[in-house]
Amino acid sequence: MAPRPIIIDSDPGTDDAIAIWLALASPELDLLGVTTVAGNVPLALTSKNARKVCELAGRGDVKVFAGCSRPMLRPLVTAESFHGHDGLGHAPLPEPDMPLQPQHAVDWLVDSLMAAGDQGVTLCPIGPLTNIAMAIVKEPGILPRIREIVLMGGGFFAGGNTTPAAEFNIHVDPHAAQVVFTSGVPLTMMPLDVTHKALMTAERIAAVRALETPVAKAAAGMMASYGAHDAEKYARDGGPLHDPCVIAYLLEPAIFSGRDCNVRIETASEATMGMTVVDWWGSTEEPRNCRVIDEIDDDRFFKLLTERLAAL
Ligand code: BDR
Ligand code: CA
């Protein structure tokens, strides 16, 4: 079967880096490009980090496009306290030689989706949804060309990680999320409800480190630095590994399970701004616009990740 064309829209970000490596290590996926957005750190850093990550994997040929430098309406909120001041958990990755593509990410998203073949393109947003929403607003003709959107964001039973009600990616740009969640494109959401079950235990990090490749050593270092903060915050055996769940879902969907629900994004109340309001119990007649994932076979997930990283 021909590899599935995907675009990763990201804000690297330690867990973003690991998601990009997982995609690069997977022949089932054809990574058309990486688009970057302001999120965990400002745009200049996410754009540089995406290139560092590709180059460390020997993939200086991957096209990286810089996108939006701020959310649609709200001021940018960043997350250096989790990802380090440089966004990569202080992993000493070499400065990239590969160039940033000259085209704006939103324009490239529109162009490449409009040129997509019959099978369409799967979008994998693992940062704030600004670029995706801007592309939809700029050219709604892209909608039928998007096969599906599988995103990391939101949380319902697990609550929020940035405010009591909201997860980081949705909180940073709730208006962009609203555009995406009302777009009619098939959506799958990897919320905190599932990623908080994908814990980077010391044993799992050690298995990655033992691969002894430059990518594996960097990944293990990032998992340890990012994970330690969250392990303490949530009093668990390890921190959650969020963004790679999106790529793993494309590779082995049977690792995950969830439910089709109506999901609305809160954009009016400051206290709950960016909350993903999931109609888990079917309390309304609103359309089921999103598959909400809440369960993971975490051992299989980390086995898949470790096996794939070994190939890089
Ligand atoms: C999400 O926020 C970011 O800090 C991570 O990269 C992930 O995409 C988790 O809430
Ligand atoms: Ca991210």
Word description of this protein:
The strands form 3 sheets. An 8-stranded mixed beta sheet has the order 3-2-1-4-5-6-12-9, with helices on both faces. A two-stranded antiparallel sheet has the order 7-8. A two-stranded antiparallel sheet has the order 10-11. Helix 1 runs parallel beside helix 2, helix 1 (14-24) crosses helix 10 and helix 9 runs antiparallel to helix 10. With 312 residues, the protein is of the alpha/beta class. The chain has helices at 14-24, 43-56, 80-83, 105-114, 130-138, 168-172, 174-181, 192-195, 202-209, 214-234, 244-251, 298-309; strands at residues 4-10, 29-36, 64-66, 121-125, 146-152, 187-190, 199-200, 239-240, 256-261, 263-265, 276-278, 290-296. It has a single domain (4-309), classed as Alpha-Beta Complex (Inosine-uridine Nucleoside N-ribohydrolase, Chain A), CATH 3.90.245. The two termini are 22 Å apart. The structure holds beta-D-ribofuranose and calcium ion. The site of beta-D-ribofuranose has 15 residues, from helix 1 and helix 6.
What is shown here, in short?
With 312 residues, this protein is α/β, with parallel strands linked by helices. The protein has helices at 14-24, 43-56, 80-83, 105-114, 130-138, 168-172, 174-181, 192-195, 202-209, 214-234, 244-251, 298-309, and strands at 4-10, 29-36, 64-66, 121-125, 146-152, 187-190, 199-200, 239-240, 256-261, 263-265, 276-278, 290-296.
